[in-house]
Amino acid sequence: MVHYKDLGLSNTRDMFKKAMDGGYAVPAYNFNNLEQLQAIINGCIESRSPVILQVSKGARSYANQTLLRYMAQGAMEVIKEAGSKIPVALHLDHGDSYDLCVSCIETGFSSVMIDGSAHPYDENVALTRKVVDYAHKHDVSVEGELGVLAGIEDEVSHAKSHYTNPEEVEDFVKKTGVDSLAISIGTSHGAYKFKVKPGEEVPPLRFDVLEEVEKRIPGFPIVLHGASSVLQEYVEIINANGGRLEGAAGVPAEQLRRAAKSAVCKINIDSDGRLVVTALIRKILKENPGEFDPRKYLGPARDELKKMIIAKNREVLGSADRY
Ligand code: G3H
Ligand code: 13P
Ligand code: ZN
């Protein structure tokens, strides 16, 4: 057993309390490789933002679970060397089984998500409770989910979303003992969140559902998945350099700002980072057909990703300059 505290990591308890009191959201960025981790860590050191490093089941099998864990451990050393005091959580994104959550907790994760949202309510409660009982023995935070987001949640694909039913949240939180709750208010995963024609506005998120949830569990940390804005400047670079992303649309920054000021304490961002990296690599390789040193295209992609992360922390989530 490697305990996260020995690695210098934090669980999400104090992070969320500060975020709730301060009216901002902690960013949760997914990573799968070295360059993404460098960009996240250096971007959050520079903007003095707390951060949740998210690892999906897919990331664990892509990058090797042991290597990923040591990378996160290495990131903590880099933060120390930089003299930074930002808190960092290592979090399992969309855990789909008790055994996966246990395996992460035993190897240094400070937070896990058990996503039982595809199961009937009672099964979701039972599975989540079981994970909480184990996690809390080790002071690890647990995120549960109620309601289903359309799109792909790590290898599980849902054709249609259904919004969280506010009437269930109080009972769910009480019975499971979770530390935070992901809800469905109209976002979805990936780059195609809304079907809109060019120039058309995307439909607003269901803030009425969020408000109903807040009324029933006041002060309880809420999590927003599928929260990429699908930044159009990068979609355009991709399309201008041989890519084809038609009708890609995400959550406008103003709506995320509004969510961050509410009980939403954690905002998940993966797709925006993917777009930045793909845009830069496509552009550089098209402009420099003779280039074959990966550092020459991965390096600028990483630097642009760091810029995007600093901008999100400062201008959208409000998590900058907190530490
Ligand atoms: O919610 C899903 C995240 O964007 C992770 O995606 O399962 O492809 O790593 P992934
Ligand atoms: P996006 O696809 O909007 O970046 O959402 C990521 C996410 O929710 C990870 O759990
Ligand atoms: Zn998600």
Could you characterize the architecture of this molecule?
The chain is of the alpha/beta class and 323 residues long. The chain has one domain: TIM Barrel (Alpha-Beta Barrel). The protein is built from 12 helices and 10 strands. An 8-stranded parallel barrel has the order 1-2-3-4-5-8-9-10, surrounded by 10 helices. A hairpin with a 2-residue loop joins strand 6 and strand 7. Helix 2 (34-46) crosses helix 12 (294-317), helix 7 packs across helix 8 (207-216) and helix 11 runs antiparallel to helix 12. The protein is globular. It starts with 12 loop residues before the first helix and ends in a 6-residue tail after the last helix. The structure holds glyceraldehyde-3-phosphate (G3H), 1,3-dihydroxyacetonephosphate and zinc ion (ZN). The site of glyceraldehyde-3-phosphate has 10 residues, from helix 3 and strand 3.
Summary tags:
323 residues; alpha/beta; TIM Barrel; two-stranded antiparallel sheet; globular; binds glyceraldehyde-3-phosphate; binds 1,3-dihydroxyacetonephosphate; binds zinc ion
Assign an overall shape: globular
**β-strand amount:** 5-15%
Radius of gyration: 19 Å
User: Would you tell me the structural class of the helices and strands?
Assistant: alpha/beta
Order of helices and strands: HEHEHHEHEHEEEHEHEHHEHH
Number of beta strands? 10
Largest sheet: 8 strands, parallel, barrel
Our count of domains comes out at 1
The count of helical stretches stands at: 12
Assign the CATH class.
Alpha Beta
Enumerate the strands of the largest sheet in spatial order, edge to edge or round the barrel.
1-2-3-4-5-8-9-10
Mean pLDDT: 95
Terminal residue distance: 30 Å
Regions with pLDDT < 50 over 5+ consecutive residues? 152-157
| The named CATH superfamily | Aldolase class I
